[in-house]
Backbone:
């Protein structure tokens, strides 16, 4: 019987230690809603670019936004080079936000971004910044050409990744 009392005492001390080390923390998290996105000109500018230039890869959108900024319309993104392609972490986060609220959608196989019907409606309501529209319309053919070349390169990389280097699976019987 003495052993039982010791066990209870050990459990009580463990519980006592555990209760003193537990702490509840509440951290505020910003919620992304369709209304907030529609009020954000930066995000609606991305929806406009994807709608104007057609379905394109995420990496291509990074290149297009970088190109638009070099042509004089500052969208507020900072880019660094990854390989030979421009990349912006904040642009990546904004793309995720647009996918989350359903203004953009990604094609399942090649992951090309396209504007959804909800995104088209939001774009009609929110409008496009005049300066961005001027820059894009003034160089739409150049942007489309560069974008399609980059999309083609990415498609080839994806196809090589899917088909290249994979061995056919075999059953344990060798069939």
Residues:
């Amino acid at each position: 019987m003495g052993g039982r009392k010791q066990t209870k005492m050990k459990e009580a001390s463990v519980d006592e230690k555990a209760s003193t080390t537990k702490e509840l923390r509440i951290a505020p998290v910003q919620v992304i809603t369709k209304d907030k996105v529609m009020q954000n000109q930066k995000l609606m500018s991305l929806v406009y670019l994807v709608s104007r230039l057609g379905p394109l890869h995420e990496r291509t959108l990074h290149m297009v936004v970088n190109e638009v900024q070099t042509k004089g319309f500052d969208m507020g993104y900072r880019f660094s080079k990854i390989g030979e392609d421009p990349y912006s972490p904040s642009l990546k986060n904004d793309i995720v936000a647009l996918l989350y609220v359903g203004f953009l959608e990604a094609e399942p196989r090649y992951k090309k971004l396209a504007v959804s019907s909800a995104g088209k409606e939001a774009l009609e309501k929110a409008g496009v910044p005049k300066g961005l529209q001027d820059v894009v319309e003034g160089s739409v053919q150049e942007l489309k050409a560069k974008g399609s070349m980059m999309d083609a390169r990415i498609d080839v990389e994806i196809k090589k990744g899917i088909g290249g280097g994979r061995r056919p699976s075999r059953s344990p019987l060798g069939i």
About this structure: The beta strands are 80-82, 85-87, 104-106, 113-115.
